[in-house]
């Protein structure tokens, strides 16, 4: 599990660590890691390479200057474009000059590598105009072989909001981000996350000094493989869990077919369907046991209710019946819209069994009374606390937040999933994982992770539809656990 910490926590840890070290040690560690990665990005052909440092007024610029000095000593032609000469890191600039580098107002003609040391964890807002101009000018340059320069960001791509991952205005798009001590939220959530490119974490000794509860957890393949239920010779369909699906309608049978499809790809031993799309569901999936009425559905270990249900009386009755059980529940799409009703919301808040709400941004806004806004993690946490439910806020980096303040970010998102019906597949899979006995937040992040992998797998074969994503769920799990 990767972990990310907010700026204030990084600053406290840094202060505690620095008290035990000679001044400047951390910056030297950071710069050494940065220079090593820059050399790698130049295929180790450092001698003669054109390196341009974009140097802001803080320690982020200092890191870039010391790394530039190390590259200059290996024969690179290093130019520092200093954005605010009065406030530049003086010792860093001196080191660069002593190593043969130079400072200039504009980038040189040849640039193989750009080091973005404009701003790091001290950032406020998008890039200021001087910094943005210098960036654009440098990006227009070409390398020794006429190629586009490689961009290495120092700590974070400049211009992003480090604590929220929001991007307001111009920001750097990096090929690689070399970060120090720990990941920060901007590396893993919001529109900032894809701007970081590949992430490299340089160990500067900060870890023991960081608080034990990180702001965000990011699962990797091994975490997800571990979370998935294991089946043994003693299993039968009922011990694996039964998931009940109350989605779709005569008007929207597709939603029912897709959510049962998602459920069938999960660990549950049996999928039951209850609703007016019964015939279509059984035709599409013969192994599903289907009834017209929820009351006749039989026993299940978790319910999925919502998408394609509509918001009429029958839909409201279905949601009410599911909420009245003491079983884990996934509330998706139309169920979320019905929760805006006060009595329904009270029913939800009064439950003690696990619940997962799966809103996209518009559903979130209706439910919470406000857009998720710039701080998606904060918004998801607030809604989770208010509803006493786990919230899975959909997006490129889907966020899972719990009522007691835990946050996960999904790293496998892909824009290929931005197509009708993929959310139905996700809800079904999530219900199956709940029925399989996973804790709600673990079920939610596991579903998002597998769903993202399935989206990527489906995209390898061309434009993606929701059935492609559902069909890819099983092979990606086989690859993960095999
Ligand atoms: N923590 C650690 O353990 C370690 C930290 N290290 C390094 O230190 C970095 C943090 O350094 P830092 O605190 O000096 O702040 P930093 O990010 O350089 O920026 C501050 C300056 O930028 C300016 N500025 C602000 N916003 C801006 C914008 N949008 N566009 C343009 N400019 C903007 C702002 O100007 P002002 O608002 O004052 O006018 C201010 O002067 C950290 O990211 C890492 O690289 C490593 O060396 C070792 C271990
Ligand atoms: N730009 C995007 N990048 C990555 N994932 C996306 C993007 N847009 C949507 N998704 C994902 O696609 C799914 C869409 O779900 P949803 O909006 O409920 O669609 P539908 O209601 O059509 O099923 C979610 O899992 C969401 O995270
Ligand atoms: K930076």
Automatic annotation (TrEMBL):
Record text on cofactor binding? Binds 1 potassium ion per subunit.
Tell me the InterPro entries matching this sequence.
Answer: Carbohydrate_kinase_pred_CS (IPR017953), CARKD (IPR000631), Nnr (IPR030677), Ribokinase-like (IPR029056), YjeF_N_dom (IPR004443), YjeF_N_dom_sf (IPR036652)
Q: Which residues bind K(+)?
A: 60, 116, 158
Instruction: Kindly list the cofactors needed.
Output: K(+); Mg(2+)
Keyword terms: ATP-binding, Isomerase, Kinase, Lyase, Metal-binding, Multifunctional enzyme, NAD, NADP, Nucleotide-binding, Potassium, Transferase
Keyword hit for ATP-binding = yes
Domain YjeF N-terminal intervals: 10-212
Per the record's keyword annotation, is Kinase included, yes or no?
A: yes
SUPFAM superfamilies documented for this protein: Ribokinase-like, YjeF N-terminal domain-like
Q: Where does AMP bind?
A: 394-398, 423
**What's a GO biological-process term for it?**
metabolite repair
| Domain YjeF C-terminal: from-to ranges | 220-480
Spell out the molecular function terms from Gene Ontology.
ADP-dependent NAD(P)H-hydrate dehydratase activity; ATP binding; kinase activity; metal ion binding; NAD(P)HX epimerase activity
| Residues the entry annotates as binding (6S)-NADPHX | 59-63, 120-126, 155, 255, 308, 360, 424
EC number, as in UniProt: 4.2.1.136, 5.1.99.6
Q: What does this protein do?
A: Catalyzes the dehydration of the S-form of NAD(P)HX at the expense of ADP, which is converted to AMP. Together with NAD(P)HX epimerase, which catalyzes the epimerization of the S- and R-forms, the enzyme allows the repair of both epimers of NAD(P)HX, a damaged form of NAD(P)H that is a result of enzymatic or heat-dependent hydration. Bifunctional enzyme that catalyzes the epimerization of the S- and R-forms of NAD(P)HX and the dehydration of the S-form of NAD(P)HX at the expense of ADP, which is converted to AMP. This allows the repair of both epimers of NAD(P)HX, a damaged form of NAD(P)H that is a result of enzymatic or heat-dependent hydration.
Its quaternary organisation is: Homotetramer.
Entries under PANTHER family matching the protein: ATP-DEPENDENT (S)-NAD(P)H-HYDRATE DEHYDRATASE, ATP-DEPENDENT (S)-NAD(P)H-HYDRATE DEHYDRATASE FAMILY MEMBER
User: What is the name attached to this protein's record?
Assistant: Bifunctional NAD(P)H-hydrate repair enzyme
Q: Which gene encodes it?
A: nnrE
